[in-house]
Specification:
Strand content: under 5%
InterPro entries: ABC_transporter_permease, MetI-like_sf
Main location: membrane
Helix content: over 70%
Distance between the termini: 42 Å
Number of strands: 0
Subcellular location: Cell membrane
Membrane topology: Multi-pass membrane protein
CATH architecture of the largest domain: Orthogonal Bundle
Keywords: Cell membrane, Membrane, Transmembrane, Transmembrane helix, Transport
Radius of gyration: 25 Å
């Protein structure tokens, strides 16, 4: 059981972390809320004024905002479904004693080490490209016309890329 002195020392030692957390997270959050109620022009910050709830009314009545919400929910739910179900399947497969199990585990984890912009470029230029991508080559080899994945199915393409990166 801690004594009163050790409890106060522990509180004192936690203080820098709490102060840094406040500075690092709470102050920017408060500034974001404050600026959301103002007219703000990046080219001329002095020209702004108080907007009240007009900014929120603008976004809530804008059809593009609701389309963005639907797209975001589709991406989040699609990626979650693929990564949870696929992750459980991969975990069950990798758990089986097989030859090269260590290498297989490293290969399954390797997408975590690829930065998202690099992953997007790899998928865009090497896998999904309609002219010389991997999927285009497979389609042409079986007599099908290649598909422009980002042009025809952009939401699906993004879901596949993000799910690939976060699957294991």
């Amino acid at each position: 059981m801690a004594t009163r002195q050790t409890e106060s020392i522990a509180r004192f030692m936690r203080l820098p972390a709490i102060v840094l957390l406040f500075i690092w997270m709470i102050i920017p959050l408060a500034m974001t809320v404050y600026f959301s109620f103002r007219y703000y022009n990046l080219l001329n910050p002095a020209a702004g004024g108080w907007a009240g709830f007009e900014n929120y009314q603008y976004f809530l009545t804008d059809p593009a905002f609701w389309q963005a919400i639907r797209n975001t929910l589709a991406i989040v739910l699609g990626v979650l479904a693929i990564t949870v179900i696929g992750g459980i399947g991969v975990a069950l497969l990798i758990d089986q004693p097989i030859f090269g199990q260590g290498i297989a585990r490293i290969l399954v984890i390797s997408p975590f080490f690829v930065m998202p912009p690099v992953a997007a470029l790899i998928w865009k230029n090497m896998i999904f490209h309609p002219g010389y991508g991997v999927f285009a080559g497979i389609a042409q080899s079986v007599g099908l016309r290649p598909v422009d994945w980002f042009g025809a199915y952009p939401l699906f393409s993004i879901i596949v890329i993000v799910a690939w990166q976060w699957l294991p």
